[in-house]
Write a structure and sequence with these properties.
alpha/beta; Quinone Oxidoreductase, Chain A, domain 1; Rossmann fold; six-stranded parallel β-sheet; 10 helices; 15 strands; globular
Length: 325
């Protein structure tokens, strides 16, 4: 089968790799022919060599593994050892070993969901990150509250849209990249074009959010900025993926403000994917609003180069991995 392999940071090559077979499936696993994939912000540190390539809960996967790093996957089931998932079904979800940048991939059947066939594979990609956002947002109450979102990449914008759909009274979006062209589409009432630290230092008491969602990750500063910015008695939802195991933060401020800190990843993945599919069906405009770049399989290098770029017009990057998708 074809597969892409990172031969050094930021550089892919296409290789011939061993094709997985139905005989190699463990109980509960499924074999997919990949159709499309989405590049996640958590893929970029692995792409550029800034992290130790921690791909999944099954162990450390080093760059050089065929298909790495891509975990947001849409595929057609070739073979299945998972109840409820039949060969021929189209599914969306996680490649459980982040190796979906290949013609075929084996993944845990508990981490994919059969989606309605009226949706194209490229459009179905958005179900996966949306599932993460919706499950995470269950941890805090946002109704009738001012919600601040630190980081307005694709995930932060989805949080803004979901918070507004759950009746947040006002959504404040904070990012040094100017998202003015899309802010209204995602329900952002107040756009702050500045680093989180500058916003946290300048925000007036009357404007402090009651909930702050940290949607940046990959560094340690913005969580403490959230603590500084939030109102007394507020709730912080930490969603950004940490590259460091330990975070320094102002514990005195966390204590004196009577704050609650929540974090976590999607655990009930099939249920979350089903909910996300329903949400997307109710809000089909999200794909055109969020997906800024679409590439085909021959342009994987350009797709990752684009995803690693910071620019106002660069949002979600999606790759069609099969012809005709």
């Amino acid at each position: 089968m074809w597969a892409y392999r990172l031969i050094r940071p930021r550089l892919f090559e296409m290789v011939d790799a061993d094709t997985p077979t139905p005989d190699s499936l463990a109980p509960g696993a499924v074999l997919l022919r990949t159709l499309a994939g989405g590049i996640c912000g958590s893929d970029i540190p692995k792409l550029v060599g800034q992290t130790d390539a921690r791909a999944d809960e099954f162990g450390r996967l080093r760059p050089g593994r065929p298909g790495f790093p891509l975990h947001e996957v849409v595929g057609e089931v070739v073979a299945s050892r998972r109840d409820g998932i039949q060969p021929g079904a189209r599914v969306v979800g996680w490649a459980s070993r982040s190796d979906a940048l290949a013609e075929f991939v084996i993944t845990d059947g508990a981490q994919v969901h059969p989606y309605r066939e009226s949706l194209s594979a490229v459009d179905a990609v958005l179900i996966q990150p949306l599932a993460c956002v919706l499950e995470a947002l269950d941890r805090v109450s946002v109704a009738d509250k001012v919600v601040g979102i630190v980081g307005l990449g694709p995930i932060g914008l989805l949080f803004a849209h979901a918070a507004k759909s759950r009746h947040a009274s006002r959504v404040v979006g904070v990012d040094p990249v100017d998202r003015a062209s899309v802010a209204a589409k995602f329900g952002i009432d107040d756009l702050v074009v500045a680093p989180a630290k500058a916003w946290a230092r300048a925000v007036a008491d009357v404007n402090r959010p009651e909930v702050v969602i940290e949607a940046v990750g990959h560094q340690v500063a913005t969580l403490d900025d959230a603590i500084a910015a939030i109102s007394v008695g507020g709730s912080i939802l930490y969603f950004g993926i940490p590259d460091d195991e330990y975070y320094p933060l102002n514990m005195e401020r966390l204590l004196r403000k009577n704050l609650a800190l929540f974090a976590g990843v999607a655990r009930d993945r099939r249920r979350s994917l089903a909910r996300a599919e329903e949400y997307l069906a109710l809000n089909p405009e999200l794909n055109d609003a969020l997906v800024s770049h679409r590439f085909d399989r021959s342009s994987v290098q350009a797709a990752y180069d684009t995803a690693a770029m910071t620019a106002p017009d660069r949002l979600k990057v999606v790759v069609a991995l099969a012809d005709g998708e």
